[in-house]
Amino acid sequence: MTERFYVTTPIYYPNDRPHLGTAYSTVTADALARWHRLLGDDVRFLTGVDEHGLKILRRAEEQGMTPEAWTDETSGWFRDAWKALLITNDDFIRTTEARHTRTVQSFIQAIYDNGYITKGEFAGWYCVSCEAYYAEDELDPGNLCKIHGRPVEWLVEENYFFRLSAFTDRLLEWFEANPTAVMPETKRNEAVSFIRQGLRDISISRTSISWGISVPWDDAHVVYVWYDALVNYLTAIGYGRDDEEFATWWPVVNHVIGKDILRFHCVWWPAMCMAAGIDPPHQVLVHGFLLVGGEKMSKSKLNQIDPVELAADLGVDALRYHLLREVVLGSDGDISYEGLVARYNADLANNLGNLAQRVATVVASKCGGIGPAPRPASPDNVLAVTAAKVVDDVRVAWSRLAPHEALAVTWRLVHETNAELEVTEPWKMSPGPEVDDVLGDALEALRIVTILASPAVPLAAAEIWRRIGLEGSPDEPGRAALGGGDLAWGGYPGGLTVEKGEPIFPRRRPQAGGGEKG
Ligand code: MSP
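Above: the input record for the complex with 5'-O-[(L-methionyl)-sulphamoyl]adenosine. Below: its predicted structure, written as tokens.
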């Protein structure tokens, strides 16, 4: 049965170029989208930019530009970066688009009509970088924001308030009834304990700036940037405009976010949905931070790395693979150039690249360049047995939203195939049925690997697929479908021309200070 999958990234502040941290969220969501397409699911994948609020306004002013002109330019940086990283989003939303203004206004009007928005005065410590108010005990000494290390500002405003406090019990019931709504469990527990401490109403409008969406019943106010931004997930699927489209996608939404915005997505957002009379999001997947030398990488600290430059240097596949394989989803992970090169050499150059190269070389020397068919699956066919187990385990890993595990498991098959070649040494055999059997099995294992690895390394997967003589590409929808997909042993037909070509992942010199990882 065809299932549906709607995956979203956070919408990023286009106040500067994308960095490796924002690329991490985006590549993770992309890998999930790609896996679901392989399963044959109907997939919708949304990303975009969050253009309102004080942070963007000030940044534009610093540049001597209007916020419109600034975001026209900078939103393009994100579009271009995601293209360069082979991100397969179906839509790219900007919160300044008319479709979004209309959606925010009808959503917030519904909440107002349901009695969950009231007027009042608000004073508090505001961090412009976070676009959020904090209580005094949430700040570092000297009134510094814990995330950005910058001084917060005292703001006093007449605001509209969202009655978040009214949702404490309903939120706790929702978490109870939906144990996997927030993943992984540690992050779910964090959200639940935050709610248990008691929720305060939140200020959701501003009169101090006009860069935003007008509150529909009071145009002296603009909607607070977070209250506006979260609604992007509804704008893109026709909320208030196309009921059928909305009913198709909303029940299967999966928000990929970083842990810094957990409170907004796992407390505010479900409550906002309840207040407007729609279901809370189906699932929120919370990942950790990428750290550089132990510190969070961000625009306000100067340790950002340009993902597009890195991809141009090492290859897009290498960067994507590293992000997905290195960091355990949900935990923080340290990223370094040395680590990237070490993993590239170990997993991509020495393992996958070497396997493809070896197989092609021996097919050329022993089989006249024509790839033989594999032996049938049987309990004695080591690679067929490994492949079947790997395919099962990869499915489980993706369903547990664990890309690092899916890739580690896939590489078990790469490793096992290389090991089989080392044991049988087909390069020492004379041409004939024995060599054909060994190489047929290796080609078949490689075919299965390219399908399984394609969400992470789409270019290399397609290239290996082509070189072993197969038609189409490994990432065609449905190739991993249960029943009827292409992951069962025996799909390589044999009789195809196999091309040697240059190494797909040429080895890199290890960087000073970085050991190689096995
Ligand atoms: N605009 C808000 C999100 C609104 S969503 C309705 C925002 N934007 S942001 O540009 O600051 O991007 C935040 C997201 O980028 C984080 O949630 C996280 O997904 C990602 N990351 C930013 N820095 C990161 C790391 N150092 N490591 C991993 N992810 C990081 O917040």
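Notes for the reader.
The radius of gyration is 26 Å.
Confidence is low (pLDDT under 50) at residues 513-518.
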